Each structure stands twice: as structure tokens, then as C-alpha cells.
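Interim report, section 4.2 (structural modelling).
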Amino acid sequence: MEKIRVAVVGLGHRGRYMVQLAKNSFDFVEIVAACDIDPALWHETQWQQKVPMKESLPGTVFYEDYNKMLEENTLDFVLVETGADVHADFCVKALERNINVFSDIPSVATLAEAKRLWQAEQNSTAQLMTGANPNEWGFVNAMVDLYQKGLLGKPYYMEAEYIHCLLNPELSRQLVVHSPWRKALPPIRYCTHSLGPLLRIMEEDLRYVVCLGTGQHVNPDSLKDDMMAALFQTESGVMIRLLRAGAGKAAIGLHSYRVFGTKGYFERIAERGNAPAVCRFNSTELYACSRKLMEMPVDTMPPEYIDNPKAGGHGGADYALFDHMFAAFMAKKPMPISLRDGLRMTLPGIYAAESARRKGEKLTMHYPWEKEFDDDIRDLGC
Ligand SMILES: NC(=O)c1ccc[n+]([C@@H]2O[C@H](COP(=O)([O-])OP(=O)(O)OC[C@H]3O[C@@H](n4cnc5c(N)ncnc54)[C@H](O)[C@@H]3O)[C@@H](O)[C@H]2O)c1
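Predicted structure of the assembly:
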């Protein structure tokens, strides 16, 4: 089989992990080049990494300059693993050269970036795959399956929580030490893990948002709110409530979701103390469980990979992202999690942060595929 030629930009802990996953799990992947402005990440050992990358990737050429890397190599894919607030420029440059992009989340940091990225993909023969790994989780696929079989009816209210505080304090501390963007990014902007799965069972885009933040109570010197809560709504009135944590002392987490549909209910409640995470549902369409919550034997691992020892990363979801992306590339099919999907789950966080900055003002949201989006870029300044 012909090799798929891959490069990576951003060698923080996520970039280092993802590039090793691609190399070690997919025989047909060749890691041609890697880039970071900090050469120590290439030459030296790092947190959670005993062997320097230059030794574990002996055939890979390292660059400090992204443009040079793109110029000097023939590539099928670039993995964009720079900080969460700086993805778009790297993606645009690759797409302009007709190189496919795997972009980690969130997709963009501003509305103007969303417009540029959208246009870049429209003008390119290449595609962007959004690295929204929670969309691949087994319980998310189960939720989508219940929805598609008509067992939930039409969702009219949904909730998601992503609390990332004290469950693993050493990990949280290390992440902030090593990844500067984590210090100041408003928590509600890191919303794709929560909205991505729920938007899989919503045909409409989210249209309205109100959002508030707590300010800083846990650590008065922090640059971001301890908690932010947003209410989103579609034009037909479907609501999503999203709670995101920036700091806190609650030893709970990480991801919970609830779906209220016209014919049923689904929930995935994150682990609590000794109780493991649990998935349950009920449906008026199934006599036996119309009034009783049924537990589902499914969690993060996508069922198709349960017996696959290579399926690692966030409960198998990182492997699933690459597996589905490379399969789509080889079959010349659309990327399974498109740029449009990524913007649907990223832009609501940007509007929400702006709503919070305006003390909870209700904002109307648009997307680059709508003509009103240009007015938002001009008027909102976010
Ligand atoms: N999907 C997930 O589950 C998940 C988990 C963790 C992180 N992430 C995402 O992965 C991305 C990376 O996260 P991280 O924690 O590793 O971030 P990080 O800040 O630790 O690493 C980013 C790296 O990009 C490099 N960089 C910045 N500007 C550059 C430039 N101009 N040229 C080359 N390199 C440059 C930095 O030097 C740094 O090493 C983020 O977007 C984050 O949101 C996703």
C-alpha cells in the first residue's frame, strides 16, 4: 500500500501523543516532518515522554519554521496540534497548498478566523478533518443510534457538563505548566467536547446564546472564570445548557450529557467517587422500558475497536479519529467530522464568551455559510 505522508505542527503533549499514535498504529503512515518553535521538544526528553522525539522518529525531519516545512515536503496531511487559540493560520496555509488537515479542537479562536478557514477549504482540493474525539466515543454512537432508530423522538432540551478540576490535580497542574493557552482561555470556549456529541443528533444549528461566568473565587489571581454556564437555543426552540469549569475543588468529572426527547431520554453521567460512569435511557417506543431507566453496557470505547489493542487515546476515540480519517482519505470520501461540523461546535463557544463579557447579553449566532456572518465579524469584535 502507498504510504500516507504526514507532518505535524505543535509538539506539546497532545502533538507528541498524536504523532506517535499515527506512526505506531497505522503501518501505512509515514511521519515525514515535524515542527515546533521550541526545538527542545524535539531534541530532549519531555513530560510523559522518556525518549526524545528525534530518537523515536529517526526518519523525520524537524523544522522550527512551519512555512519551510510546507515548502520542502510533499504531504498528504498536516496534523495541527498548536495551542487551542492558534489553529486557523496553520490550517489555512496547508489548505492553500491543497494539503489535507487534521485540526485539533477548538477549530478557530475568532469569527474572522472562521471565515478565512471556511473560504480556504472552499478554494482547496484538500479537506479539513476536525479532531473532535468525543464524537467517536462508544456511548455517543449509542446515543446517535437510539436517536436514528426513533427511540428518543425529537430532542428538545439537552445538557452537557465538562468539569476538569480536581479529579486528577497533578495532571491538571502539569497541563497548565506545559500549555500556556490553558491559563487564560475562557472555559466556555473549550466547548467542542460537550457540544460536538449533542450536535450529532441535532439537524439545526444553534442560533441564540446567553452566558455568564462566576469570576475568580478559587484562585483570585486566575485569568479565567472558575465556572461558566451557557444556554443555547435553536430557531425552533431546542435548548442546550452547557456547564464548563475553569478551576474548582470538586473531585468530580469529566463529561456528562443528558438528552430529553419527545419519545425518550438518554444520559451519560460521569464517574463519581467509586461509582463508574453510567449510561442509561428510556423510550416510550419500547414497552419494557417506557417508565424505567435501562442501563446500557457501553462507555467510551467505540464497540468496533473493543478487541483492537491499538485503539488508544481518550478511551479509544483518538484511534477512531485517525482510523476513520485515513479510511475516508483512501476512499476519496468526505471527512467524517468536517470543518462545518467543527465550526458548528466551536463558534457557539466564541459567541458565549462574548455574551459573558457583555454580562449575559443574548446574542444571535451565525456561521460562515450564512450571509449575516460578515456583520457579526464587523459588529461583535470577537
Ligand atoms: N482532543 C483532545 O482530547 C485534546 C486534548 C488535549 C489537547 N487538545 C488540543 O490539542 C492542541 C494542543 O494542545 P497542547 O496541550 O499539546 O498544547 P501546548 O501549548 O502544550 O502545545 C502547543 C505547541 O505548539 C507550539 N507552537 C506554537 N506556535 C507555533 C508555531 N508558530 N510553529 C510551530 N509550533 C508552534 C508550541 O511551542 C507548543 O509546543 C490544542 O488545540 C488543544 O485544544 C485536544
